[in-house]
Design a protein that fits this description.
With 118 residues, the protein is an alpha+beta fold. It folds into 2 domains: 3-47; 52-107, no CATH class. It has helices spanning 3-20, 28-47; strands at residues 51-52, 69-72, 77-83, 88-92, 104-107. The chain has a 5-stranded antiparallel sheet with strand order 1-5-2-3-4, with no helix packed on it. The chain starts with a helix and ends in an 11-residue tail after the last strand. The model has no long low-confidence stretch (mean pLDDT 80).
């Protein structure tokens, strides 16, 4: 689901809520709960999307580097970080892969260890 789709659904629900408020056809709490859930789902989706590097660079995590990300040049993928001192992406790849200009990054989400007993 795209952010635009989520916003459209929220607008539809708000319109539905406004038009049915006098008739009490749809409980306001129900619509509010659905809107809240849609916003939560969109926030979760945003964590896992490919972010164009032209949109924004990652935040600095120390004096000159960012967190580690999954990176792509549109053809190949690698793991790396942004070096603010040299103003370039540093990428780990196999020797056979030569990364071109990095165009997208994606956060690396590790699996939860809540139920693994660790």
């Amino acid at each position: 689901m795209s952010e635009k789709t989520t916003q459209e659904l929220i607008e539809i629900l708000n319109t539905l809520l406004a038009s049915s408020s006098s008739d009490n056809l749809i409980p306001e709490r129900l619509v509010s709960a659905v809107i809240s859930k849609l916003k939560d789902l969109q926030a979760e989706l945003d964590k896992h999307r490919w972010i164009p590097v032209s949109e924004r660079l990652p935040k600095k995590t120390n004096t000159c580097t960012s967190d580690i990300y999954l990176l792509t040049d549109g053809r190949n993928k690698g793991i790396g970080w942004y070096d603010y001192h040299f103003k370039e992406w540093k990428v780990f790849t196999t020797p056979l892969v030569k990364m071109g200009k990095i165009i997208h990054r994606k956060s690396i989400t590790l699996p939860s260890t809540e139920n693994t007993g660790e």
